[in-house]
Amino acid sequence: MAQLMVVLDATIVNIALPSAQQALDISTADRQWIVTAYTLTFGGLLLLGGRIADFFGRKRTFLIGLLGFAGASALGGAAVNAGTLFAARGLQGLFGALLAPAALSLITVTFTEARERAKAFGVFGGISGGGAAIGLLAGGVLTEYADWRWCLLVNIPIAVFAFAAAIPLVRESKAQGDTRYDIPGAVLATAGQVALVYGFTKAATDSWSSGVTIAWLASAVVLLGAFLFWEARTAHPLLPLRVLFDRNRGASYLVSILLGAGMLGMFLFMTFYLQQTMGWSALKSGVAYMPFSGGIIVAAIIASRLLPRTGPKVLMSVGGVLATAAMIWLTRLDLGSSYTVDILPAFVAMSLGMGLVFVPLSSLALSGVANHDAGVASAMVNTTQQVGGSLGTALLNTIFTTAVTGYVTDHAASAAQGGAAGAQLLQAHAAIHGYNVAFTASAVLLAIATVVVIVMIRNSSATTATTSPDAAPVHIG
């Protein structure tokens, strides 16, 4: 439930953006902060949140994250100006950075038997993958039939219920031994991630070649390089390099980045296609994603049952191929495309592919991790997804904009002969061309992720059982 709430907030507000912008008189230049205030704090603070969960207590951190997230959602729902809404979204990201790694690491240390852990990751993976589509549907329903503020306020009952259930059901656990915080590492990692995410955000608005974008991305490279240099030398690192440089785990993090970037191609541009090209309402567009939500849940259940027997490589390879094929299918869209023939098959294939990937991915990223490092390894799963999503938004939006501009330039002369109607038709065809180019780029990213799985990931007794004989004993209070 907590993971659903965190994932929902990455998409549920998107459909409510026009209503929130109008209600609070937010400028077009500033409206991006409704989204980026959340992703910046969430992505930037995840590693520190994971270490706090390890050392302070995972249940305690989880409960604090739930209450803080609910409070921030209440503040956002009651916002009377842009600044309050931006601050609330930032606070949601902050408490989400505590909540998400605590939730995933609690699953890791609670379910130690292979089949039970596979089922737990099946539920978690299904929610992680389907939550974005559920957010689009919920955002459409709440915006159309209630008020945009409920896209934030809906978190309160979810958080309260999860809090009440967690007190009796979840057991406390924390890392043993060295529990000193790596403050320099935390500062470097957080600053580097914020600079990276903000650089990607500026690339989407100011272009990749702008001085501001280059400065932020260069700063990110320097800060993250300094972070790795420091982590290799400090006695109590925030991110032990043994977590990062394990072959399977490192490959899973890379796949997570690529999937986050590639999948955005479907969600981001299909929403525009459905509403602007097909003329669908926000609610109807949200309903269109329901097969995706259902498919990913079904695939996650299947993956959770097969994972102990097949290991992660086969499931992730098949899932990657399905997702890539789905994105290639979407490159066929035009002005007269049919939802049933041209969109629904891609949604089904994408959902099945993502379900087969997400469950083994979460398990693989935590396979063999010592109890001491469970929180930070969990945080890396979420961090890579956030960085991938931010990169995907910036990269694909830039590709889309460039493709549209180029198409208009190449066909402007012939369109001018048709007058106003010709110009309008040109813009429509240019948008379709932009979508197809963006979907092609998404397909390439998903294909690269599939190649990484095939080449780098290895099945072993540890990955098949989703635990390692070398892992430290689990200490649960």
Walkthrough of the structure:
The protein has 477 residues and is mostly helical. It has two domains: 2-171 and 238-465, Growth Hormone, Chain: A, CATH 1.20.1250; 182-237. Helices cover 81% and strands 0% of the residues.
CATH H level, superfamily name of the largest domain: MFS general substrate transporter like domains
Q: What integer value in Å does the Rg equal?
A: 22 Å
Distance between the termini: 23 Å
Number of helices: 19
Please state roughly what percent of the residues sit in beta strands, choosing from under 5%, 5-15%, 15-25%, 25-35%, 35-45% or over 45%. Answer: under 5%
What is shown here, in short?
The protein is an all-alpha fold and 477 residues long. The chain has 19 helices and no strands. The longest helix has 43 residues, at 374-416.
What features would you highlight for this structure?
disordered C terminus; 477 residues; Growth Hormone, Chain: A; 81% helix; mainly alpha; 19 helices; 2 domains
Please give the structural blueprint:
Blueprint: H1 2-8, H2 12-23, H3 33-56, H4 58-77, H5 82-110, H6 114-145, H7 150-153, H8 155-169, H9 183-206, H10 211-231, H11 241-244, H12 247-277, H13 282-288, H14 290-310, H15 312-330, H16 339-366, H17 374-416, H18 419-456, H19 461-465
